[in-house]
Design brief:
Blueprint (H helix, E strand, L loop, with lengths): L7 E4 L8 H15 L6 H20 L5 H16 L5 H15 L9 H8 L4 E6 L3 H10 L8 E4 H4 L6 H11 L6 E5 L2 H9 L4 E5 L11 E3 L10
Parallel strand pairs: 1-2, 1-4, 2-3, 4-5, 5-6
Helix pairs in contact: 1-4, 2-3, 3-4
Length: about 230
């Protein structure tokens, strides 16, 4: 569908190629065991996932700092499940989480295969709201860094998706116009609406079973990209 017009494919990283929830679960398992935190991991994750999602939205909207994000998502989760965590414990766990998260390297099913499929015909890039040092480690440890010509993160851009400045920077670095580019990501707000506002084509990888919409085409499996590119 986009084969005749698209030359460059921009991917989101977390929740799109890199399996954030699976790697995050393994990270919490590791740091809870290391620091003898006596909580049920499944119970913790049920509370943590939506809290983390909400704090990332605030962070994306520039309403909280990186430090607030990292502290409050743990504090509020522990409060919700009734575990009395000290500030020292929360700070230690927060540091351990960041230190170990990128050491786990699970990608979504078909991620390597679709990148291999696309590479001969398209230039591939990343636009991510994640932190620079963490995201590069994720890409390297998952053995997908070499697929990408340009990797733009929010720290480099000074803004986060859906702010148009991060997309503009990525297009400039890739030396490609918006109408020859497509954005593939899991966030309707950050990835899809952000990209379309600048004139990029878009594919929504609906990894969270969000309601259907008419903003752009929706895929539920990375292999479905072959239907469009």
């Amino acid at each position: 569908m986009y084969r005749e017009v698209v030359t460059d494919v921009f991917f989101d990283l977390d929740h799109t190629l890199w399996d954030f929830e699976k790697n995050s679960e393994l990270t919490f398992k590791k740091i809870f065991e290391e620091h003898d935190i006596p909580v049920s991991l499944p119970e913790f994750l049920v509370a943590y996932v939506p809290i983390n999602f909400a704090f990332w939205k605030l962070f994306r909207e520039e309403k909280i700092s990186k430090e607030d994000l990292r502290y409050q998502r743990l504090k509020q989760t522990f409060d919700k499940i009734g575990f009395k965590a000290t500030d020292a414990q929360i700070n230690t766990l927060s540091e351990g989480y960041i230190a170990h998260l990128s050491s786990f390297n699970h990608t979504f099913p078909g991620a390597h295969a679709i990148l291999e499929y696309l590479r001969p015909n398209y230039k591939l890039h990343i636009i991510t709201n994640g932190f620079a040092n963490v995201q590069e480690k994720k890409l390297r440890n998952a053995n997908i860094l070499d697929y990408f010509s340009v990797v733009v993160n929010s720290e480099m851009a000074g803004v986060k998706k859906p702010n148009p400045k991060i997309f503009t920077l990525a297009l400039e670095m890739a030396k490609v116009p918006a109408n020859k580019s497509i954005m593939i990501g899991d966030s309707l707000e950050a990835d899809i609406l952000g990209a379309k506002a600048l004139g990029l084509h878009a594919l929504h990888f609906n990894a969270h079973n969000e309601p259907k919409h008419n903003v752009c085409d929706i895929i539920y499996d990375l292999n479905e990209i072959k239907n469009f590119l």
